[in-house]
Amino acid sequence: MTENKDVDKSALVLRINEIYHDVEGQIYHGKHPEILEDEKNTWAKLGDFIRPDGKSFHLLDVGTGTGFVPLQVGKKLRSRDVLLCADLSHKMLEACRENLDKEKLLCRMEFLKITEGKIPRADLSVDAITINAVLHHIPELGSFFQEMDRLLKPGGFLVIAHEPNAVFYRHFFLRFNSLVLSPRLLVGAVLRRMHLYEPFRRLAGRVFKGYGEENKIIKEVNRRLVAESVVRESLPYERLYELLDVHVPDLGGNRAGVGIDLLFWKKKFLLSYALDYYSTYNHICLEGRKKRHFKSYEQFLARVFPASGSTFSVVLRKPSVNEGKK
């Protein structure tokens, strides 16, 4: 058994995420250019919900990483406004600070280290919270949404994007369709079924630069986990990623029932919030240039299955004080 049974699973997931993103740190932007490119269009729409008024506007970006969302929406903020960037990885926060310093934004900026899933500011109250590609890393979504509700002012916006839509992964046709369109995903699914993915990655790491860099990151993450006695011995690649991306399914169906059903979580923890915007996209589960080759087909699938894209974005509005009294 590689995992330390004395370590709570939620704590294990958070620590793996912290170490992994510390190790990944500065290279994140270069490692995921296609994701960042795709999501710029998404945040061009979502940024319309960042509406500073005459007073000081406080915007909190949770899981800020290297500063992708602040770089998209920070220019909307003025000198009286405050941009708070929060992440559990101090290396990511360092990279975020460097990237934002280059932009010379007008607003005041603060950088907050998340500890044990909590924002370390009991007095914090913000007008908007932005979250991009973060929920799938969170082990306890209920506690997370309760924390966001605590931080958000009445009438404030909770803006979420780039999360795996559980509806897509429950849809056999769309899942199978994406495997057919991507030989790489299909080969990966077959290798997982045959329990050969681990040796394949080790071999591929000797030939392909991308696999080699990822294998180095995994090795360093495991070294730190073992040194801290978080695990007894190194975790296999597949197990490590199950814990790192705890809510991310794979197209081969090995992780059934995984993904995020946003409407379920809203009903359970954010029932009073208004749904101001909801969109699912990427119905073929491809990114960047690969997706552009199938643009017309993607548009067709979006018309036929509007709620079943592999990724979703959403804007939730907390009721104002007057709405809450009704």
Strand order of the largest sheet: 3-2-1-4-5-7-6
Point out poorly predicted stretches: none
Mean pLDDT metric: 88
Helicity level: 40-55%
Give me the strand/helix succession: HHHEHEHEEHEHHHHHHHEHHEH
Rg is 20 Å
CATH topology of the domain at 26-168 and 257-325: Rossmann fold
CATH superfamily of the domain at 26-168 and 257-325: Vaccinia Virus protein VP39
Number of strands: 7
What is the rounded distance between the termini?
Answer: 54 Å
Named at the architecture level, the CATH assignment of the domain at 26-168 and 257-325 is 3-Layer(aba) Sandwich
Secondary-structure-derived class: alpha/beta
Please identify the top-level CATH class of the domain at 26-168 and 257-325. Alpha Beta
Largest sheet: 7 strands, mixed
Principal-axes geometry comes out as: globular
Number of helices: 16
* Estimated share of beta-strand residues: 15-25%
How is this structure best described in words?
The protein is of the alpha/beta class and 326 residues long. The protein has a domain at 26-168 and 257-325: Vaccinia Virus protein VP39 (Rossmann fold, 3-Layer(aba) Sandwich), CATH 3.40.50. The protein contains 16 helices and 7 strands. Strands 3-2-1-4-5-7-6 form a 7-stranded mixed sheet. The model has no long low-confidence stretch (mean pLDDT 88).
Describe the structure in brief.
The chain has helices spanning about 10-25, 30, 35-45, 70-75, 90-105, 140-150, 165-170, 170-180, 185-195, 195-205, 210-225, 235-245, 260-270, 290, 295-305, 320-325; strands at about 60, 80-85, 110-115, 125-130, 150-165, 275-280, 310-315.
